[in-house]
Amino acid sequence: MNAIETIELTRTFGQRAAVEDLTLTIPSGKVFGFLGPNGAGKTTTVRMLAALIAPTRGTATVAGHHLGPDDSAIRRSVGLLTEAPGMYGRLTALQNLLFFAGLYGVSEPRAREQAERYLTMLDLWERRDDKVASFSKGMRQKLAIARALLHEPEIVFFDEPTAGLDPEAARTVRDFIKELRSEGRTIFLTTHNLPEADELCDLIGIFRTKLLRVDSPANLRSSLFGRGTIVRVAGDAAPWTGAARALPFVHGVSTQNGALSVTLDDPDRQNPLLVQALVQAGAPIQYIEPMSHSLEDVYLELLEGKLPTTTPTDLSADPGDVKL
Amino acid sequence: MNDTSLNRIVLILRKEWLELRQQRGLIFGTLLPPLIFALLPIVLAYLAGHTSLTSTTRSSLSPTPTATPGVNPSLAGLPGAELGQAIVGQQFSILLLLVPVIIPSVIASYSIIGEKTSGTLEPLLATPVRTWELLLAKMLTSVIPAVAITWLVGLIFTLGMALTALSSRVFIAIISPGWIAALILCTPLLALIVVAATVAVSSRVSDPRSAQQISATMILPIMLIFFGQITGLLVLSPFIALIAALLLALIALLALWLTTRIFQREAILTRWS
To answer: CB-CB: which of B8, B18, B119 is closest to A86?
Structure first.
């Protein structure tokens, strides 16, 4: 079952398109990372999917409910962590949570249980009776995360959950998201933190007004640049480039920091042949390792228009998960 | 209105009042003017009736004490001390109608702009709460205490006048059927209009004081009645109070309609500055 499906979802403000033709399918139980620069339309997308603002055109289904006619049902089915935590400073942490739980229709005894559960998970239970005005930014953020989950939503939208947090608090939040993922909850994560997206997400969409690319992090890293192998040799690597280039399955060879960087179609199958050819040519191989690109490389290349923006038809890592 | 809507409205009201209780300065600043409006006329009316005021002092309490009886039948034929007391009482009774203008503008501006500045509007709107429920709860947050305090102050004023009035004619001249009708009918409507105006203003400003200052223009109609009463051009009869209530009801309906157009989920998130 799919948690979110959008077809040509578009939102304009006057003449300016904030989101254009967003067609996306996110299966249930996945952590979807939504990456893009400031002003790319990420928050507008989240607001549309959380039934806070209406699309100018296009359709969407969220948790099985149609955007527009079922907005109220959508709001009951999703949890939203907004960019700013937005808590009532004069109320205590517990009063804040009980208030919002009540608005979601959670009974008070159940809301107290839920508040205890999530405040404990987020290390805030001891501070439950303190006024939120006395909380640090990290504590407010964790409280806002607890608020987003009180009614046990099927889908949780996290807009920049670790922005501005110290490393310890950010780690707590990331661990918490991992725990939610293990519960099988669908998470729509908006972030600028690319290593965080790489660590947490099953799928990543790179977005700037339009969706540029959707894939699993591993596929994004490999399929956009091609796969390959780094061969480290003793001494200068340049003399051995010819031996590698002579192999029919090698697409490219370059030298980097005294190592050969060889682009291949299928490293698992072709590495033994490559090593054999280099050894026969007399290359003093020290060790080999897989060529890796960071998500940041992919992200920047895509935004700079240096890479194709279509999603590969063969999503071998998780076929059928994401359609563009 | 179903039970769920009612529950949500009550929940928001409880939260609002819980937050208000934490703001002692705001409560003190809000309650002080009504208290002064209730107690000062009682003291002045007592002085006007029970001390040997000079004619100069009496005339300072009313600019035209001798001209008024000709216009206001309730004052016709009253002897000097009773006339002074009746004039003081009547003028302050009109000032009491300012209470439902002052209180809601203060509470509503903090209630709505507070949500904007603390960033709580978006998470609030992300819940299943309907915008009309939120708007109604926000309005009731201000209107209920404003009307309750106004009527309480009116009661204190009435009791004070009952104790200090030199005669039953003086008491009836001050606590007139017209004034009672205005107090009962007009004050909730005035409070509603002020809250609606504050909501409208709050959508454009980010400082509660700015919203209060703009909403304070609602004092003007009351001041017109006040000066009308002083100059003798307007006598607050039940008929006038009824006409005023009808007029205010029309304005309140228009203001509510405008407010519901402004207070839309999407407009709040995308257009409120």
So the answer is: B119
Give dist(CA B124, CA A291) in Å, integer: 47
User: Residue A274 in 3-state DSSP?
Assistant: helix
Element (H, E) at A190: strand A186-190
- Cβ-based contacts of B265 with chain A (< 8 Å): 52-53
**DSSP, res B183:** I
pTM flag (> 0.90): no
**What one-character-per-residue DSSP string does A81-135 give?**
E-SS----TTSBHHHHHHHHHHHTT--HHHHHHHHHHHHHHTT-GGGTTSBGGG-
What residue type is A32 in one-letter code? F
Structural element, H or E, at residue A253: strand A250-256
Closest approach of chain B CAs to the CA of A112, in angstroms? 15
The two three-digit tokens of residue A168, written as one number: 């310890």
Distance from B142 to chain A by nearest Cα, in Å? 18
Partner-chain contact A53 B265, CB within 8 Å = yes
* Residue at A16: amino acid letter: R
Query: Which residue from B minimizes the CA distance to A147?
Result: B123
Name the β-bridge partners of A252: A263
Does the beta carbon of B124 lie under 8 angstroms from any beta carbon of chain A? Answer: yes
- ipTM rounded to 2 decimals: 0.80
- Residue A272 has a CB neighbour count (10 Å cut-off) of 9
DSSP A9-50: EEEEETTEEEEEEEEEEEETT-EEEEE--TTSSHHHHHHHHT
User: Taking a C-beta distance cutoff of 8 angstroms, is the pair A41, A18 a contact?
Assistant: yes
Q: Are A199 and A168 in contact (CB under 8 A)?
A: no
Tens of pLDDT along A242-291?
999 999 998 888 887 778 989 888 888 899 999 999 999 999 999 888 87
- Cβ-Cβ pairs closer than 8 A, A with B, add up to 75
Contact A321, A203 (CB under 8 A): yes
Rounded CA gap, A245 and B213, in Å?
78
Minimal Cα distance from B20: which residue of A?
A90
Name the residue facing B269 among A47, A85, A91 (closest C-beta).
A47
CB contact under 8 A, A80 and B126: yes
B26 interfacial to chain A (CB closer than 8 Å)? no
Task: Using the Cα atoms of residue A19, residue A25, residue A28 and residue A30 in order, give the sign of their dihedral.
Answer: negative
pLDDT in tens, B202-223: 777 767 777 777 666 767 767 7
Indicate the residue of A87, A95, A103 with minimum beta-carbon distance to B128: A103
Which residues on chain A are in Cβ contact (under 8 Å) with B118? 86-89
Q: Report yes or no: B138 at the A interface, CB cutoff 8 Å.
A: no
What is the rounded distance in angstroms from the CA atom of residue B16 to the CA atom of residue A99? 11
Nearest alpha-carbon partner for B124 in A176, A85, A110: A85
Q: Do A91 and B18 touch (CB under 8 A)?
A: yes
Residue of B nearest to A55 (CA): B266
